[in-house]
From TrEMBL:
It is found in: Membrane. GO terms for cellular component: membrane. Residues 205-337 form the O-antigen ligase-related domain. This is O-antigen ligase. GO terms for molecular function: ligase activity. It comes from the Bacteria. It is a multi-pass membrane protein. It comes from Sphingopyxis indica. Pfam families: Wzy_C. The chain crosses the membrane at residues 17-36, 48-69, 81-100, 107-127, 139-159, 180-197, 203-236, 243-264, 322-345, 357-373. Keywords: Ligase, Membrane, Transmembrane, Transmembrane helix.
């Protein structure tokens, strides 16, 4: 059995990938394109689809994957038991989608999951063999893209000061404003580690990302960033030296959010939404109903993305918890297969982490923590960022990563 994730030696250097030099800007600026194409309170059906499926992000993912056709040799070969588990999960996902109450949305979402998978594999292969596609270039493009996105958001808010503007649902790029929180949490993770490593500008960007998320009323971003760093603190000794810098970013982000709210108020969809008595999200009730429904089909579930069909009165698309999301979709069998794959991949990631790629790990961890109480591992953009970051960490490991789950060495 193959225990390695090393790609085929037939993959050449950067010159074998004519699009490699364009990938980082495409990835970094796809959200900006999404913003610019979905502005307005009264959008068309086409714009609604652009928002719901984050079409510019998907186009980039597909383009990245297609750029490797005929050049990648063969994809990484995992151990046989992992291949069997993956094949079984894919078969289960397709079968349950075809038999879902609303098969059309289920098939679309499963297809998108396959696109994410192909994108992650392509990024891994490119980073492993291409000399042009450095992580620093990707980091800069993702950061600049986020800053442009956020500046556009603030400018848009300044131009739309109507009292009846419902920011939670008419924010450009997202059908629900919490999507910005996922984006901000990932970028904050990227920049936070750079700040811990000594880059002052990254510290400012991390604080700004937190501030902007709080300004929009995306309540989970602060918790996700804190939880992501806490996880890194516990798992990786080299992350423990940055506690004071981390706390400084949190404090600065909170103060900046207050300033943003004073200058560009969004009604109740700002920091006051964090503490408002009328802001109960009803998550506990949703979780209880989801578990009850999942237990009606305990083994194989209801199919991907059936939450809105099963609970039309909730007006949300997912149960705000990744475990319940998986259980509802694929039952205990699917959840078991996901657990097997996650543990195997988690060990690979754990061994691959070093101080050079830790920024991407922290971004992925923030998204993972967010998924415990929201839909960050359901919506297209945040899942795309998660796949990207995991692939980058795996591809930029230092030294031999074979063997069991060993602790990474500092430095």
């Amino acid at each position: 059995m193959h225990e390695s994730l090393e790609p085929s030696p037939r993959i050449g250097p950067a010159k074998s990938f004519p699009l490699a030099s364009l990938l980082a800007p495409a990835i970094g600026f796809a959200p900006v394109i999404l913003f610019l194409t979905t502005m307005g309170q009264h959008i068309s059906a086409f714009q609604f689809i652009l928002k719901t499926l984050a079409i510019p992000v998907l186009i980039v993912e597909i383009g990245v994957s297609l750029s490797l056709l005929g050049r990648a040799g063969h994809i990484p070969v995992p151990p046989r038991w992992i291949s069997i588990s993956m094949a079984a999960l894919m078969l289960l996902a397709v079968a349950t989608s075809l038999n879902a109450k609303d098969p059309s949305i289920s098939i679309i979402k499963i297809s998108i999951l396959f696109i994410h998978l192909g994108f992650g594999i392509a990024i891994y292969l490119i980073y492993t063999r291409s000399r042009m596609f450095y992580t620093e270039i990707l980091y800069k493009n993702m950061t600049i893209g986020f800053l442009i996105f956020t500046i556009l958001s603030i400018s848009y808010a300044l131009l739309h000061r109507e009292d009846d503007y419902v920011w939670a649902y008419y924010f450009p790029a997202y059908n629900q404003i919490r999507g910005y929180g996922y984006y901000a949490a990932a970028i904050a993770g990227l920049c936070l580690w750079k700040w811990i490593a000594g880059d002052k500008i990254s510290g400012v960007v991390a604080a700004f990302a937190l501030a902007a998320a709080l300004w929009t009323g995306s309540r989970g971003t602060l918790a996700a960033v804190a939880g992501g760093y806490a996880g890194a603190f516990l798992l990786f000794p080299f992350a423990r030296r940055g506690v004071l810098r981390f706390l400084a970013v949190l404090g600065a982000g909170i103060l900046l959010s207050v300033a943003l709210t004073v200058l560009v108020p969004l009604g109740r969809f700002g920091p006051q939404r964090l503490i408002g008595d009328d802001s109960d999200s009803g998550r506990i009730a949703i979780w209880g109903r989801t578990l009850e429904m999942a237990l009606q089909r305990p083994w194989f579930g209801w199919g991907e993305s059936q939450f809105a069909t099963l609970f039309p009165d909730t007006h949300v698309a997912q149960p705000h918890n990744v475990f319940l999301q998986i259980l509802l979709s694929w039952g205990f069998v699917g959840a078991g297969l996901v657990a097997i794959l996650s543990i195997w991949l988690g060990c690979k990631v754990y061994r691959a982490v070093n101080e050079q790629n830790a920024a991407f790990l922290l971004a992925a961890m923030n998204i993972a923590v967010f998924s415990l109480f929201d839909g960050s591992l359901y919506h297209v953009q945040s899942v795309s960022i998660f796949a990207l970051c995991i692939a980058v960490v795996l591809a930029t490991k230092s030294g031999d990563a074979a063997g069991g789950c060993r602790a990474p060495q500092p430095g």
